[in-house]
Write a structure and sequence with these properties.
The complex is a heterodimer of chains A (113) and B (111). The relative contact order of chain A is 0.33. In chain A, a hairpin with a 5-residue loop joins strand 4 and strand 5. In chain A, the strands form two sheets. In chain A, strands 2, 4, 5, 6, 9, 10 and 11 form a seven-stranded mixed beta sheet that branches. The radius of gyration of chain A is 13 Å and the shape is globular. Chain A has 113 residues and is mostly beta strands. In chain B, the strands form two sheets. In chain B, strands 2, 4, 5, 9, 10 and 11 form a six-stranded mixed beta sheet that branches. Chain B has a five-stranded antiparallel beta sheet with strand order 1-3-8-7-6, with no helix packed on it. In chain B, strand 9 and strand 10 form a beta hairpin. Chain B is mainly beta and 111 residues long. The N and C termini of chain B lie far apart (41 Å). Classes of the chains: A mainly beta (113), B mainly beta (111). The interface between A and B is medium-sized, with 26 and 25 residues.
Chain lengths: 113, 111
């Protein structure tokens, strides 16, 4: 009955590799987000999609490319991984016509070696 | 640009005490404010959401207040328990825009 799910939960990879993180929500929400939590535990927005369209793209290297095949999915692809990309990445979703409560996934802990 | 500050950064209390966590934000034009709990190595759990038109919300031993004009919110935890130990995050939202988070307060409740 997971509302917002992410895969994988842990990802360890070497510098220079390309990797993807997947997110799915079964709440019927129309807006999804990717947040990054750095080593100091500070959460910051990366991207926001509404009905499969990109509406917010913060200052993120273009090595990061989100893709939303449908309203229930928002995937994050990262090219040429760098050490500084190591962080926990959280997916979240909300219903824009509702109370705007954001529901978060469990996070994906990415470690780049 | 919205900035959210949480004080204190860390707090340690004996079991049974009542406590208050503070959150302040610089831009009062918010739609809502949300308090989350994050356990080590885990995701975020939404505790309370206060709409901009509301003054407070309660859930069990938790009570959150909102004073938009002064840019402040508090999370009150009554009769704290060791299971309350976690990091508590405050976040403000404006419509369906992404939340702006504070850096959190790390709470330890000692049995």
């Amino acid at each position: 009955d997971t509302a917002v799910s992410q895969t994988p939960k842990y990802l360890v990879t070497q510098m220079g590799n390309d990797k993807s993180i997947k997110c799915e929500q079964n709440l019927g929400h129309d807006t999804m987000y990717w947040y990054k939590q750095d080593s100091k535990k500070f959460l910051k927005i990366m991207f926001s999609y509404n009905n499969k369209e990109l509406i917010i793209n913060e200052t993120v290297p273009n090595r990061f490319s989100p893709k939303s095949p449908d309203k229930a999915h928002l995937n994050l692809h990262i090219n040429s991984l760098e050490l500084g990309d190591s962080a926990v990445y959280f997916c979240a979703s909300t219903l824009t016509s509702g109370s705007l409560v954001q529901y978060f996934g469990p996070g994906t802990r990415l470690t780049v070696t | 640009k919205q900035e959210v500050t949480q004080i204190p950064a860390a707090l340690s209390v004996p079991e049974g005490e009542n406590l208050v966590l503070n959150c302040s934000f610089t831009d009062s034009a918010i739609y809502n404010l949300q308090w989350f709990r994050q356990d080590p190595g885990k995701g975020l759990t939404s505790l309370l959401l206060i709409q901009s038109s509301q003054r407070e919300q309660t859930s069990g031993r938790l009570n959150a207040s909102l004073d938009k004009s002064s840019g402040r919110s508090t999370l009150y935890i009554a009769a704290s328990q060791p299971g309350d130990s976690a990091t508590y995050l405050c976040a403000v939202g404006s419509g369906n825009t992404p939340l702006v988070f504070g850096k959190g307060t790390r709470l330890s409740v000692i049995a």
